[in-house]
Amino acid sequence: MAALSSPGSSPHTAPQKVYFQAPGESTEEPERRHPGKVTVKYDRKELRKRLRLEEWILDQLVVLYDCQEEEIPELEIDVDELLDMETDQQRGERVKELLVDCYKPTEAFISGLLEKIQGMQKLSTPQKK
Questions:
Q1: How many angstroms separate the CA atoms of 129 and 127, rounded?
Q2: Where are the annotated segments for Disordered (predicted)?
C-alpha cells in the first residue's frame, strides 16, 4: 500500500511524496528519510575482471618496487585511459611514463598489462542491455 503525503497546504506548493508501508502499519507519515540515490548498473562480469586486474597490478607493483603495498609510490594506472588509446604502443609508452622511477625492468609488467586489458570495456560508459 502506498500513502501520499503533502507537507504544504496546497498541492501546488510542494511535491507529493510516496511512502510504502507494510499491511498493519499506521498511515502516519514515516520518519524523514534521505532521498535515494540512483546508481548505474555495470556488467558484473566486467567488474570482476577489472577487480582481478587491479589486484594483479598491485601485486606486480609490489614486486617491481620491492616494497609493501602501502609503500608503493603514488601513481595511478588508469585502465580506462589506456583503453581510450589507439594502439598498444601508445598504451605501453604511457605505462612506462608512469613507472619512470622504477629501477627494475618493467617490460614484462607492461606486456602483461596490455595483454590483460585486451577486450576489456571502459567502466565510465556502462553497456545497456
A1: 7
A2: 1-37
- Distance in angstroms (rounded) separating the CA atoms of residues 113 and 115: 5
Q: Are residues 73 and 102 in the same domain?
A: yes
Closest CA to 58 of 42, 47, 72, 48: 72
Pair 110, 53 in one domain: yes
Number of domains the chain is built from: 2
Does the pTM of the predicted model rise above 0.70? no
Residues 61 and 6 in one domain: no
φ, ψ of residue 65 to 5 degrees: the values are -90, 0
Round the average pLDDT of the chain to a whole number and report it.
79
Please list, residue by residue across 50-83, b when 16 or more beta carbons sit within 10 angstroms of its beta carbon and e when fewer do. Answer: beebeeebeebbeebbeeeeeeeeeeebebeebb
Enumerate the β-bridge partners of residue 17. 5
Secondary structure string (H, E, C) spanning 88-117: HHHHHHHHHHHCCCCCCCCHHHHHHHHHHH
Q: Is residue 127 part of a domain?
A: no
The domain in which residue 89 lies consists of: 44-117
Tell me what pLDDT residue 14 has.
Answer: 58
